[in-house]
Give the backbone structure.
Amino acid sequence: MRPPPSMPSIDEIRNDLIAAGAIRVGVAPAGVLERARSALEDRRARGYSDSMEFTWRNPERSTNPSASVRGARSLIAAAWPVDVSDEPAPFGARARVARYAHDDHYTPLRTALRSVARRLRIDGHRAVAFVDDNAIVDREVAYLAGIGWFGRNANILVPGVGSHVVLGCIITTVEFPTDRPVPDGCGSCTRCIDDCPTGAIVGPGVVDARRCLAWILQRPGSIPEEFRTVMHDRIYGCDDCQEVCPPTIRLSPRLPAGRGEPGPGQWVDPWAIAFGDDSDLLDRFGRWYLHGRNPRWLRRNAVIAIGNTADPTDQTVDERLAVLCDDDDDIVAEHAAWARRRLTERATVGSL
Ligand code: B12
Ligand code: SF4
Ligand code: SF4
């Protein structure tokens, strides 16, 4: 009979994850994430979480690793670089995808973490991989595991890498030696707070999601008019608080490319989305968070991007928007009516 494989050391695990594509790996103790729990409760009470569920749905669970893996002793956290390459912006109507969603980076990170977790389970331990899962607050885990510091934009900034990473972890009953948190690297900078287009960063590391475009683009319902122009060409996610961040700007060009599963890329055609049928849209964008898996929210965003970016002198733009004004979906129709008004306004002031 073959002997059971020997328990991998944390160095072997780290090397395996780095070889698979992770850019930083660290270990945190698996105690309750007290700071994250009080932040979730406090921000929910202040209304900052809006109607989001995610980790807010059950903070007792999302901040207690043992609630997901009984007897948890360690959290192995990993950061995975996202695609930061730029494609030239298309002329005319366009819709921009935030960097973390150009490709799918969650799947390869999950696969790499699952492979380590499987190995630990073969040795008789409990171990489960979590990536962007409502069960655990990834950033606090990454912070405690020494992956990076909390930027004032609330993102984890990895030293030598910046914040264009996605995060995940393994919760396990194995007790590995832990790493220490990375000291703050923001210094006196406040650019992300000053330059957020909607003033959503209401304190260092505190985002009021009601004003954050990343959430506004995801949440169901009509988008308040005050945000529609400032959304500009965004269709999913917002990178502004990272694109003004000095360490992230300096370090991003060093990030390795091609570590995600191919996704829609940086630019998508808003007309194809506005007129797309449900199954095609879900085939293409189904990995994104779409409330209720309903593509109508994507169509709504596409119509706003058209209003903000299409050529206001092109008669066919108005004709196509007129069709959308009669859409069966009242959300699409209402936003298309706004887009027509916006184009008229842009034509009047002569700004593209
Ligand atoms: C809900 C959610 C959102 C919401 C709310 C974001 C938020 N700030 O909470 C919305 C939709 C707005 C969002 C947007 C984005 N998200 Co998001 N999101 C999540 C999710 C599902 C839960 C986050 C959560 O629990 N927040 C709870 C609050 C309490 O946490 P927090 O803001 O981090 O609060 C901490 C800090 O305030 C810190 N802190 C406390 N005191 C102090 C004091 C100082 C001085 C400082 C600096 C910090 C600090 O401690 C708090 C507790 O840990 C996670 C995945 C997961 N399962 O964890 C991804 C996650 C956080 N998102 C991620 C990404 C990539 C983004 C976007 C960059 C995507 C984009 N380009 O549009 C933006 C960034 C917006 C921003 N500036 O935060 C990554 C983070 C990557 C990174 N490098 O940090 C995660 C981890 C997904 C993943 N698995 O990779 N997201
Ligand atoms: S993601 Fe955009 S809207 Fe949200 S805090 Fe950052 S800059 Fe502001
Ligand atoms: S912009 Fe400045 S304050 Fe904000 S996260 Fe980056 S370094 Fe920190």
User: Anything to note?
Assistant: The first helix runs from residue 10 to 20. DSSP finds 16 helices and eleven strands in the chain.
